[in-house]
Amino acid sequence: MITPGLSFGSAARLYDTIRPTYPLTAITWALGAPGDRPSRVLDLGAGTGLLSAALRAAGHEVVAVEPDDQMRAVAATRLPGTEVLAGSAEDIPLPDASVDAVLVGQAYHWFTPERALPEIRRVLRDEGVFAPMWNIRDDRTPWVAAFSGIVGHEGWGLVDGWQYGPVEPWFTDLEPGMFEHTVAIPPAALVDLARSRSYYLTADAAEQARLTRELTTLAGTHPDLAGRDAVDMPYRTCVYRMRPA
Questions:
Q1: 222-227 long-range contacts, Cβ below 8 Å, gap at least 24?
Q2: Which pTM value belongs to this model?
Q3: For the domain with range 4-138+153-183+234-244, which CATH number is right: 3.40.50.150, 3.30.70.1450, 3.10.290.10, 3.30.1330.30?
Q4: Are 235 and 181 in contact (CB under 8 A)?
Q5: Quick count: other Cβ atoms within 10 Å of Cβ 48?
Q6: pLDDT per residue over 200-235, tens digit each?
């Protein structure tokens, strides 16, 4: 049986084309004030390199670590010249105190915190920063709420606050940040968006067929979607910034 956290490899290229990137405002806030901006950033659980690409575009040196071979292969293609390594949050293939920041995009909920947190602290310099972040669909928009009504709501409560337990004794000063942005998407691509999610990839054929059928109907009949070439999918990027203890 495929576990949800390792289910994405079979859809790696679709994931890379359909998933949203991360806004510069969220990245800048996660890394701290401009004068304190780190130069070497670990993108942990990097997937296909969406966050790594945004970090590079912002001028940072990036090391990407990803456990899934197929996701990592896409990241290596996307990020020529960037170090893309096999590894996991629980076994990071970097020396002690070798990065100025560790960012995690859309992956911390797959980590085992009691093993991952000491590893993250080990590779992070004393003056560094650790920041998991998530792009979460904004269900305050009616058609997005209808989409979530079919595929399930996301966010794991992150819009309302951190829910992954204590980060001490490795980290402290946990600060939340919230950043809104939109990504243009053709309504017909809502099916592909669902196909890039673990709940679709691990579902049986009957459930996958239901999701495809209902999302196709939504895209073709909802008054905010039908007949449109593209619509703006609203996201809230939830960032949780913390410092080494």
A1: 222/143, 222/146, 222/187, 224/142, 224/143, 225/143, 225/187, 225/190, 226/187
A2: 0.90
A3: 3.40.50.150
A4: yes
A5: 28
A6: 888 899 999 999 999 999 999 999 999 999 999 999
